[in-house]
Design goal:
Helix content: 40-55%
Largest sheet: 8 strands, mixed
Distance between the termini: 20 Å
Structural class: alpha+beta
Oligomer: single chain
Number of helices: 11
Bound molecules: alpha-D-galactopyranose
Radius of gyration: 21 Å
Strand content: 15-25%
């Protein structure tokens, strides 16, 4: 067995800095079950936090430096002054998340002290499982512990989103950070991205959460993501509302057809996928995996035909999973799109059959097999006490 992120962060810290860390924090990655691109439209989404995480080993310093060791990047090291955190222009991407958290917390008037940090994780990179949000939340928790703050988990998520928007250059919504911050073991999170209220929904027992990495390189993610945001904003303007969340059936029937056809399809995805989240929560509460699966298939079709964020290999992967699972559950692409992972929910008893269907029936355009991550719904970010 390879070492856990916790063991690697602690050992990396001790080796690099010659002493034991004072505290360890952790934050999970996430997978979204349903409700894609709805977050920045103030709609619903329904993610879970998963048992893949980023861990930060931390120690306060007497000076005003933040010194960081990235255990997973060949022991890369970097340091910056607390007061210079906002200057990210010449920083590698991974460091921008750390600097961004420090900068945002300082903007909020918190006195960030110097710190030594070692970071390790086991979140698959580039698969769309939000390794960046888990890094932001783990850093936020470490700084909270060192500086004695008590930041409500929702505020921490918003700080992470701002760090990402302003300092890491991605205009993401709040889905990933909220899921990482507020995860609950054994539960999906019905997330209202307008009120930021999160309702934990118990996952039915015996359900397997199967995350399948298509191994399709995610291309054009940023430009296409930003374009979708603009199209959603155009739709809201055209319908005379602040966000697509405010569109009810009457308004849609009256004005939907007046929108540019592409913008209209984008809006139709958002409005219908947000609605499917509420229906999915009901289905899960009843333990109705069949209905949940149906909604997941609808959601995939909506992402493929209306929002146009899938790619052919991911469509083929979702189709293969849905054909294998039948009506016992369902599968859909998850995350921002243009590659990445498909999420499947199915009875645990089907996992072997699903694995062999993937082994014989799927290859990425570059000839790679899919990678299966069996995941468990996990608790949100915090300080490690054990
Ligand atoms: C990315 C973003 C999220 C969300 C999803 C799509 O993960 O970071 O805010 O918009 O895409 O649902």
């Amino acid at each position: 067995m390879s070492a856990t992120p916790l063991e690697r962060a602690r050992a990396g810290f001790e080796q690099a800095f010659g002493q034991a860390p004072q505290c360890l924090s952790r934050a999970p990655a996430r997978v979204n079950l349903i409700g894609e691109h709805t977050d920045y439209n103030e709609g619903f989404a329904m993610p879970i936090a998963i048992d893949r995480e980023t861990v930060v080993a931390a120690m306060p310093r007497a000076d005003d430096l933040i010194e960081v060791l990235a255990c997973d990047l060949d022991g890369a090291r970097a340091a910056f002054r607390v007061g210079d955190a906002a200057q990210v222009e010449n920083s590698p991407q991974w460091l921008r998340y750390v600097q961004g958290m420090v900068a945002v917390l300082r903007e909020q008037g918190l006195a960030v002290g110097g710190a030594t940090l070692a970071i390790a994780g086991n979140v698959p990179q580039g698969a769309g499982l939000s390794s960046s949000a888990s890094l932001e939340m783990a850093v936020g928790q470490a700084l909270s512990a060192l500086n004695g703050w008590r930041i409500p988990p929702t505020d921490m998520a918003l700080a992470g989103q701002r760090a990402e928007n302003v300092y890491a250059g991605c205009r993401c919504g709040v889905l990933d950070q909220l899921a990482s911050s507020l995860g609950q073991r054994g539960h999906a999170l019905l997330m209202d991205c307008r009120s930021l209220q999160v309702q934990p929904i118990p996952l039915p027992p015996q359900v397997a959460v199967i995350v399948v990495d298509s191994k399709v390189q995610r291309g054009l993610v940023d430009s296409e993501y930003n374009l979708r945001r603009q199209q959603c904003e155009a739709a809201a303007r055209g319908l005379g509302v602040k966000s697509l969340r405010q569109v009810d059936e009457a308004l849609w029937n009256r004005l939907g057809a007046t929108l540019d056809p592409v913008v209209q399809r984008r809006a139709r995805h958002i409005i219908s996928d947000s609605r499917r989240c509420e229906q999915s929560a009901e289905a899960l509460r009843r333990g109705d995996l069949r209905e949940m699966g149906r909604l997941m298939r609808e959601s995939h079709a909506s992402m493929r035909d209306d929002f146009e964020i899938t790619v052919p290999a991911v469509d083929a992967l979702a189709d293969l999973l849905n054909a294998t699972i039948g009506e016992a559950g369902g599968a859909r692409m998850t995350g921002g799109g243009f590659g990445g992972c498909v999420i499947a929910l199915a009875p645990q008893a089907m996992v072997d059959e699903i694995r062999s269907a993937l082994a014989s029936g799927y290859r990425s355009p570059a000839g790679m097999a899919a990678e299966v991550h069996l995941c468990a719904a996990s608790d949100g970010a915090g300080v490690v006490t054990r």
